[in-house]
Task: inverse folding
């Protein structure tokens, strides 16, 4: 049984990993059609993984409702939102608009999903301010740089920043927008490049560990 | 004004204000909207992948190939479908090991793709971007020369900061400490960008609320704010009364 539970899955990782890796570097019609086909396969398997997530979510909230744990009533809203959106999608056949007209799904997207999603993320603006207060307290030279870079970026993106700059530092004949561009293109790029190079080396090593079966966390418990 | 638009305005204003109400304190309206968002969000992606992947790439090709007796192409659809379906066995402990087949496919393909793609974009392109200006260094303007040197020094010092194979002391400590300054500038700039993005979303929400506070939408925003205010005032009075009764 070990062969089906352990060795064949590990062999699959190795085969798909090596063949995909090789196909990237081999300019041949076979490798091109392989990459085309395998990306469709990946799309399909990934789509099913979303169903796995949905089942897991609905099952955990079902348990909360059945066991009547604290706040179980809110779990009903998860089901309500899920069912409403699925029904709207079925009614609209998965189309947001049809011949320029907003469909039922489009209505659900514009008036339910989008406001909820945008507001949820916009609320973070308030928390970011409190985070900024804590992180921008200038205790060291590096904290000062963090503050200055953040401030320049924010001022450089708003008309008020330009107004303040021209009133206070207009005599320098520069603009806050040009300073912002320089910060983004030069010192910030240097920091970003260092991180990206490090991340890519880390990703390459992890990929090799996965392909050769050294990293097996995704296999779960035996 | 169409009924669906008015209804939509009330729903959108309600959802927006219910989530904003968390800024005052945790409350049932926020909790309901939060849970609704989880359900709606999941359903949105499920329908998206159903109509863009499952139906056109699984259901239709399977039906067509079976009808046409095209067994080779049928297998090309059936294999990923079985791999995908194997993921669902996660919920049946006795056969949950079958889900490894789906996961291993995703991991193998992902690792095989990320390795060359990551090396090409994040590794090689970043190195090329850093050293390329030095290929025609003396034809650059003075400003571009200084910028190229700053980027090179910054990138190298940041790399030194992340280089743990040698102990950070002496010259290496100084270089890596210098790298921290570049990292801080990058983090500060990223933070500034994030703040701007969040605030632009916030302006968008306020704009929507103002739009829905007009007569054509039957003052949706105003009525919902009033309702929330009444709830919070009643809650405060009611809880005060309960607390007094208990003491």
Result:
């Amino acid at each position: 049984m070990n062969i089906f539970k352990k060795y064949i899955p590990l062999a699959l990782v190795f085969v798909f990993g090596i063949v995909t890796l090789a196909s990237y570097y081999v300019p041949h019609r076979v490798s091109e059609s392989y990459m085309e086909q395998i990306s469709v396969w990946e799309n399909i398997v990934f789509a099913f993984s979303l169903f796995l997530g949905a089942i897991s979510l609905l099952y955990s909230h079902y348990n909360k409702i059945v066991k009547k744990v604290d706040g179980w009533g809110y779990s009903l809203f998860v089901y309500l939102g899920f069912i409403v959106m699925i029904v709207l999608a079925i009614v609209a056949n998965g189309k947001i608009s049809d011949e320029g007209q907003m469909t039922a799904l489009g209505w659900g997207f514009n008036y339910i999903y989008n406001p909820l999603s945008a507001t949820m993320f916009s609320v973070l603006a308030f928390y970011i301010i409190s985070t900024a207060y804590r992180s921008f307290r200038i205790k060291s030279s590096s904290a000062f740089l963090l503050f200055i870079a953040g401030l320049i970026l924010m001022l450089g993106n708003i008309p008020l920043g330009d107004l303040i700059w021209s009133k206070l530092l207009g005599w320098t004949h520069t603009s806050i927008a040009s300073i912002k561009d320089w910060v983004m293109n030069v010192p910030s790029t240097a920091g970003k490049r260092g991180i990206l190079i490090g991340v890519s080396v880390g990703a390459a090593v992890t990929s090799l560990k996965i392909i050769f079966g050294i990293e097996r966390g995704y296999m779960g418990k035996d | 004004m169409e009924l669906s638009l008015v209804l939509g305005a009330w729903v959108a204003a309600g959802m927006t204000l219910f989530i904003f109400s968390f800024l005052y304190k945790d409350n049932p309206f926020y909790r309901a909207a939060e849970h609704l968002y989880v359900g709606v969000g999941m359903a949105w992606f499920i329908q998206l992948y159903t109509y863009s992947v499952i139906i056109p790439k699984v259901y239709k090709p399977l039906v067509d190939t079976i009808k046409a007796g095209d067994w080779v192409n049928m297998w090309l659809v059936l294999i990923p479908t079985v791999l995908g379906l194997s993921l669902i066995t996660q919920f049946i402990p006795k056969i949950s090991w079958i889900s490894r087949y789906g996961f291993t496919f995703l991991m193998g393909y992902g690792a095989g793709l990320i390795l060359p793609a990551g090396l090409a974009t994040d590794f090689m392109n970043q190195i090329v971007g850093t050293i390329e200006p030095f290929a025609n260094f003396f034809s650059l303007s003075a400003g571009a020369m200084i910028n190229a040197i700053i980027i090179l020094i910054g990138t190298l010092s940041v790399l030194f900061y992340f280089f743990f194979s040698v102990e950070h002391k002496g010259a290496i400590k100084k270089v890596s400490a210098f790298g921290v300054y570049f990292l801080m500038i990058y983090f500060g700039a990223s933070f500034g960008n994030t703040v701007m993005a969040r605030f632009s979303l916030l302006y968008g929400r306020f704009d929507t609320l103002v739009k829905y506070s007009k007569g054509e939408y039957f003052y949706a925003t105003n009525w919902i704010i009033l309702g929330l205010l009444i709830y919070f005032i009643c809650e405060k009075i009611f809880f005060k009364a309960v607390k007094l009764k208990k003491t």
Observations:
- Helices of chain B lie at 3-20, 28-68, 71-86, 99-131, 142-161, 171-211, 220-246.
- Chain B touches chain A through 120 residues (CB under 8 Å).
